Amino acid sequence: MIAEYNYVVIGAGSAGCVVANRLTEDGETTVLLLEAGGPDTKPEIQVPVAWTQLWGTEVDWAYSTEAEPYLNGRKIPCPRGKVLGGTSSINAMIYIRGNSDDFDHWQDLGNPGWSYQEVLPYFKKSENQQRGASEFHAVGGALTVTDPLAPSAIAQQFVEAAAELGYPRNPDFNGAQQQGAGLYQLTVKDGKRQSTAVAFLSPILHRPNLTTTTGALVTRLLFEGTRTAGVEYLHEGTIHQVRVNQEVILCAGAFDSPKLLMLSGIGNAEKLRSLDIPVVVDLPGVGQNLQDHLMVPVGYQATQELQLAPTSNIAEAGLFLHTEGRLDTAPDLQFFCGPVLWVPPAYAREGPGFGATACLMQPESRGNVSLRSASPNDSPVIQMNYLQSESDLHKLVAGITIIRQLLRSKAFDEFRGEEVAPGADVSSDEALQAYVREVGDTTYHPVGTCKMGTDSLAVVDPQLRVYGVEGLRVVDASIMPTITTGNTNAATIMIGEKAADLIKAAGTVREQLLIRNS
Description:
Helix content is 23%, strand content 22%. The protein is α/β, with parallel strands linked by helices.
C-alpha cells in the first residue's frame, strides 16, 4: 500500500519549514516533509559565532562551482545546508529583506502580487521583532529578529567611520531606507540561532497531520501524463514512493530544485534526451538565470587584541550604498565588517586582525546549473560565471576603494596596523582588478534558477506553479527573477509565507469544484 498525502514538501530549509508549518495549520491537511539531511542536533548550529565551522561537515552539501573562467579558473566552494533548517542552519543569520525596488521590479517583470507593498505583510507575518511593532515590523511571529547582544568595538567603529565619511547612520536596514551604515539585526534568540527549523518546524512536530522524514534523498517526481502524482525517494538504502492528491512543493534551493526538475524530465529537452531522461516538459529555463553576490575582502592587522563574543555572527556591521551616490534606486554595494581577518590563506597573518568585505548587489553576470549525470547521487554542475560582465568587476574595485577610506579613517586609528589584503602597494586599477579575480568569493546567496515570470526562460508562473504540469510548485530562492539587495534568507522565508497562502487558496478552490461536481 503506497502512502498518500495532500501535499509533499521537498526540502526542510528556509522556505520548506515555513510551508510545512502553514499548510498543517489545518488539521485535516496531511503533509509529508522530506529532508535529505539529518536533524539539527549538531551543537555548533546553535552557536552563532561557530557558523563557519559547519562548512564541509555532515550538515553541508559541500558543493563547488566548476572552474570559473573570470576568476582565474578557480573553483569556488558553495556551502549549502544539508540538515533540518537547510542553509538557515549554517548561514550568518543576518536579517535583510532586500530593497523595496527589488520587489517592485519583480512585479514590473510580469509578476503581479509581488510588489513591495504586497510582500511586506508576509515579511511581517513571520517576524517577532525585538524592537516592537511598527509600519515595517511586527511582533508575535515565529521568527525572532534581534539586535546583536555584544557587538565588537570594530563593528561599532565601522559605523562611526561611515558617519565620519558622510554616510548616513541607519539603525534599520529593513525600514524606510536601506542605504547607510549600522549594525545588522540577526535571526538569533537568547543568544542562539533561529533557523527556520527552530522557528517554524520544532514547535509543530507534534501535529499528527505532519510527517517529517530526514535522511530522505528525493530521486524523482512521479507523473501521470503531466499531472504530478507523487514522489520517489531513497531512505536508509530503500527506494520509497508516495502519492500526492493535491500538490508537490519543491523547496530544495537554487541548486537542487532545478536538479530535481531535470532528473524528473522537466528542462531543456535536448539535454535531457542526451542523458536518456524521458522528457515530461521542454522547459529550457530550468537551471538558467543563476545569480549570486560576489564579495572581495580588505584586511588589516590589529594593534591590539580584539574580542569576538560567542553570540557574534562575525559580520556584525554593514553599509549599503550606490557607487554613483544615487538615492533613487537600490544600492549596488553591501559591506560587512567584523573583528576577524577574513582573507584567503595566502594573505593571513598571525595575531589579531579585522577587515571588511564589499559585495556586489546587482550583478549583470549570469550562470547556470545543469546535470552531471542522470544519477540523483551526483552533485549538480554549477557554473556561476562571476565577473562575466566588466561592470561587475569595476563596481567591486570601487568597493575596495571605499573600504580603504573607511578603515583608514580616524575611527580606526587606535586599531589599525598594516594592510595585509590586498596590501598598500596594490593601488592601480589593473592591480586591483587582478586582486578581485584572485580572491573574489561567494556571499552564499545563489538564486534564480527556476525563475518566476512569463518570458521564455520562466520556469514558474506568479503563483509559483511549474509551467506545463499540474500539481507542482517551486518555493525557494530559485524563483527569484532577480537577486535581492542583501542577504537572501529573509526574502526566502517571505516566499514561503506567500506561497503557503497561494497553495491554501488553490486548495480551497479545488475543494469547491469537487463539491460542485459531486
